[in-house]
Automatic annotation (TrEMBL):
Signal peptide interval: none
PANTHER family named in the record: CARBOXYMETHYLENEBUTENOLIDASE HOMOLOG
Cellular-component GO terms for this entry: cytosol
InterPro entries according to UniProt: AB_hydrolase_fold, CMBL, Dienelactn_hydro
GO terms, molecular function: hydrolase activity
One Pfam family of this chain: DLH
Keywords, ordered alphabetically: Cytoplasm
Domain of life: Eukaryota
Compartment annotation: Cytoplasm, Cytosol
Gene, per the UniProt record: Cmbl_1
Family: Belongs to the dienelactone hydrolase family.
Protein name, entry field: Carboxymethylenebutenolidase homolog
Residue ranges annotated for the Dienelactone hydrolase domain, each copy included: 30-248
Keyword Cytoplasm tagged: yes
Length: 249
């Protein structure tokens, strides 16, 4: 049974029963999950996890999905050893927990991971995707990191980046219409503001897309069999994400 009735807005959809096809490695001071395609590839994608951390089976599933499309995929522990959030944790403490895990302070780790991808994996073109907390991190990187090729921000908390229109790289923003964490009925100002600012001053390609009827985490958290009517949108979101990466990497 789906757990959408639970009050935790970031825990929508059951976790996948999935072990992953890749392996865990140590990249300097960071642990990471890495999956490589069977054939040679010089294209890589950094996958930035949500608040549930780098070991979440759902996120590894997406990393492996990228590998199936020819990408070296790496999901590092951007909490750098700090505990990920657990659904059983007390949500009254969430704001304090989040203060010690700033999604805009991952630049050192990204540099380390990019160095690893280039030197150890032969990557020449690197993009980034992220979910929720990681979606906000992608937005930050698209504003600050000149070495990435492109990014996909999945239901990122856009209000954290009020001046986030001067993107350096093509960026795809994915939102869910019925998102309880980035609610469009309350945050529509931020979505509208983002779209308007991008239209006015962004000099690179971008897209903002809202998926009808979908809830937070629909691309990487909801199983396709939870609500059959959602399956086409889940598949569309994943397909859109991969098509965007294929276009710009």
């Amino acid at each position: 049974m789906a757990n959408e009735v639970k009050p935790c807005p970031c825990d929508i959809g059951d976790k996948f029963d999935y072990e992953g096809c890749g392996q865990e490695v140590q990249v300097e001071h960071i642990k990471a999950y890495v999956c490589k395609p069977s054939g040679k590839s010089d294209k890589a994608v950094i996958v930035i996890h949500d608040i549930f951390g780098w070991q979440l089976p759902n996120t590894r599933y997406i990393a492996d999905l990228l590998t199936a499309h020819g990408y070296i995929a790496i999901c590092p522990d951007f909490f750098v050893g700090q505990e990920a959030w657990k659904p059983s944790d007390n949500w009254a403490t969430f704001d304090d927990w989040l203060k010690t895990r700033d999604s805009s302070k991952i630049d050192r780790e990204v540099d380390v991971v990019m160095k690893y991808l280039q030197k150890e994996c032969g990557a020449k073109k690197i993009g980034v995707i992220g979910f929720c907390w990681g979606g906000a991190a992608v937005h930050h990187l698209m504003l600050k990191n000149p070495h990435l090729k492109t990014g996909v921000s999945n239901y990122g908390v856009i209000r954290l980046f009020e001046d986030g229109c001067n993107l350096l790289h093509p960026t795809f923003f994915i939102f869910a219409e019925k998102d309880d964490y980035v609610p469009l009925d309350q945050a529509s100002f931020f979505v509208t503001q983002l779209q308007q600012k991008l239209k006015e001053s962004c000099k690179v390609e971008y897209e903002v897309k809202i998926y009808p009827g979908q809830t937070h985490g629909f691309i990487h958290r909801k199983k396709e069999d939870i609500n059959p009517q959602d399956k086409p949108y889940i598949e569309e979101g994943r397909r859109d994400m991969i098509n965007w990466l294929n276009k710009y990497i």
